[in-house]
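User: I'll paste a sequence; please echo it back and then give the predicted structure.

Assistant: Echoing your sequence first, then the prediction.
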Amino acid sequence: MPELPEVEVTRQGIKPYLLNQHIVHAIVRNPRLRWPIQSNLEEVLVGQKITAIVRRAKYLLFICSKGTLIVHLGMSGSLRLLFVRVSPQKHDHFDLELANGVILRFRDPRRFGAILWSTGDVMQHPLLAQLGEEPLCPSFDGKSLYEMTRDRISSIKEVLMNNRIVVGIGNIYANEALFRAGLHPRTMAGKIGLSQYEKLVCSIKIILNGAIEAGGSSLRDFVKCDGSPGYFQLQYWVYGRANQPCRICGSMIKQIKQGQRSSFYCPECQK
């Protein structure tokens, strides 16, 4: 599933071609995504100007003159930029055509993504209103995460995966950040001290920024807006490396299940 880095890579890639452009045409080929696309969306979008493209958690928000188009990539979705007309394929469910001739195409083989229209304050939309801190914002620091976890008996890995606390980290990057911070994924969040949280938050920011710089992780479906893959998977320290030697100490990387997700860790470097 695309996480924060993959969504941010997509945002940065499409922004130069869409910002301040008018929508001249919209095509809905298959409205049956995670939530049905509203029946009149094509008519609603035509003539609107895209004034900003922002990310909130793993949602892309296309701020338009009369509302906001909310896009979520789901488990297998991607947005592609087309500069010439290309016949749509089976899983190409939605197109936006801009006044500059660029076409933005939404592809989603598994159809767990979403394309929704919102008027009013989009940050109060039910999908966004209860979201937690943005991990790359300056306000997210060790002290804030420390204070949010004082009464938590859940593991630190589960806390990092809780979107009401901090958004968009996801399983891959939670594993990598915990390794960098030297924290075992089963460590109880409420027992971690302030200095350890400061190290963890620093690790989260380094890992996420590194993934963005590498174009995200392409393990199965994710590609950038030009169709090319990301390469951060080549830099993994622990994720997907069960029974392989730790690159720091040589111990075998372990794999466990937490909340139906796999956690990977080094038993020597993470205690």
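The mean pLDDT is 93. The chain has six helices and ten strands.
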